[in-house]
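Practice problem: Receptor expression-enhancing protein
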Amino acid sequence: FVFCFFFSRLIFGTLYPAYYSYKAVKSKDIKEYVKWMMYWIIFALFTTAETFTDIFLCWFPFYYELKIAFVAWLLSPYTKGSSLLYRKFVHPTLSSKEKEIDDCLVQAKDRSYDALVHFGKRGLNVAATAAVMAASKGQGALSERLRSFSMQDLSTIRGDSSSTVPPSVTVRTSSKQSQPKPSRSASEGTGSSGKC
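Answer key — structure tokens:
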């Protein structure tokens, strides 16, 4: 039944009034403008209240049926529910509190702008710090890798008298070096074979 409620609310609470609001704009009829504006104000308040009542009152018997009946009452040209609620309750309340509401909206707008700027600056600072740290860690990792390669090369050069490194294993230590570095024993072997 919940699906039926949402479907009927979509059709009768939103699409039907939207189409007649379009017709009012097209015909430029002031009475229709006012009528549908009152409806949309009441419907916005109903939707806001419904967000909270759905949480707490959904267990109430015939809750969804009552909501459908309320939307039908708002729309009915015979009951004129939205006009009645607007004129009796909403307009007098908003008229008496309009100055305070406007002040709150201006303050909220200023605060949200200040908060947006503040969080934007903090976000940029965090991003810049993360980029610098990543670059420094990357530089450190690169230098550690190069250092480990050069230490490996030194150990192979020092330990050549006891063991030989196959020529297929190559380690590059700089970008200028394009050919693999032959081991000492391999070069001595070639040199000695050249002498014989």
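Discussion: Residues 1-114 form one domain. Students who identified this feature from the tokens alone can consider the problem solved.
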